[in-house]
Amino acid sequence: MGRKRILNVSRRQVIRGLLATSAFGLTAKLGTACSPSGTGGTDAAEGGAAGSGDPLTIGFIYVGPKDDYGYNQAHAEGAAGMAKKFSWVKLVEEANVPETTAVAESMRSMIDIDGAKAVFPTSFGYFDPHILKLAEEYPDVQFFHAGGLYQEGKTPKNIGSYFGYIDEAQYVAGIVAALTSKSGKLGFVAAKPIPQVLRNVNSYTLGARSVRPDATTQVLFTGNWAEPIKEAEATNSMVDQGIDVVTCHVDSPKVVMETAERRGIFCTGYHANQAALAPKGYLTGAEWDWTNIYSKIAEDIYAGKSLQDGTIDHILRGGLKDGFCKVSDYGPAVSAEAKAAADAAKATLIDGSLVIYSGEVKDNKGGVVVGANEKLEQKDPKLEQMDYLVEGVIGSVGG
């Protein structure tokens, strides 16, 4: 088989071929060298023993492209930032892997061919059943999932859950949106009504209403993480209804940002910085800063720590204070008043004096979801089980 042809096949095709041939050693090395999206590790490292001085191979899998201006780009930038910091890291990546058995094949390929000792399958839908199954199959490999699905006593010990309190940055963005909006009508294009998405919608709205109590947020769910046509339709529909600031929680905010700019309204971003897509209307955004957490995990593994023995926490969380996320730089349309209010809120979130879900908080049906004397700190499990929309949000969890 010629080298040119090998470069045109996916990792999943390579692993199928490896499983069907007895010449495993030769083809495994060839498959690793030709990994479609690997980032240049050396052939000498076939995994690397933790703490031994050998390179440590770490795999990353993305559900979409690495340059989507969104979820996947944020993770890819974090992985690249981590690899850049440590010469002993060998980074292996694959993009555009669907939430099907394809991701299981990709993980198996990274482990069997590349010798990965830790794998980061970054999409929410990779967890059940795919990560769960592979974790049982490879008990010595550490699996890190971006989400809140780890359950003590139920989830295999070699699986860890990491996520950031990016709703803190969304709260700040909501303040900027409300103080920039002329109508007080904000819009939120969302993928699915799962707790992480609802938490962003609600925190954005609570931030907006903290400075403008009459502000509302219209939310529209597209039903999936990447639905560019529906995202454009939802944004246009919001503009037609008089909404003049939009944001989103979808894999790639690109369509929402560009549609908002084309229609002449403002926008706030998500996942990564989208200022280049809307140079006039981009106000700010809630960005991930995954380099910090990826670097910390890599250092721990290299030092011999693990999920299995409890020296790496199974649940890793952090917010603005911990560098898991950040607020995008302010755009040209943001007033001095809005900047001051946003900066003040950010400071109180960092020092802990502001608790976003502090009672009394009602849902948009009039029910009390946070009692008058109740405070739900960021680590409260109730927040990771959120199934409601707060007062001020127009829409429904089932809609």
Automatic annotation (TrEMBL):
Keyword terms: Signal
Signal found in the keyword field: yes
UniProt keyword Hydrolase, yes or no: no
One Pfam family named in its UniProt record: Bmp
Gene3D superfamilies, alphabetized: 3.40.50.2300
Ranges for domain ABC transporter substrate-binding protein PnrA-like: 57-338
GO cellular component: plasma membrane
InterPro entries the record matches: ABC-Purine-Binding (IPR052910), PnrA-like (IPR003760)
Name listed for the protein in its UniProt record: BMP family ABC transporter substrate-binding protein
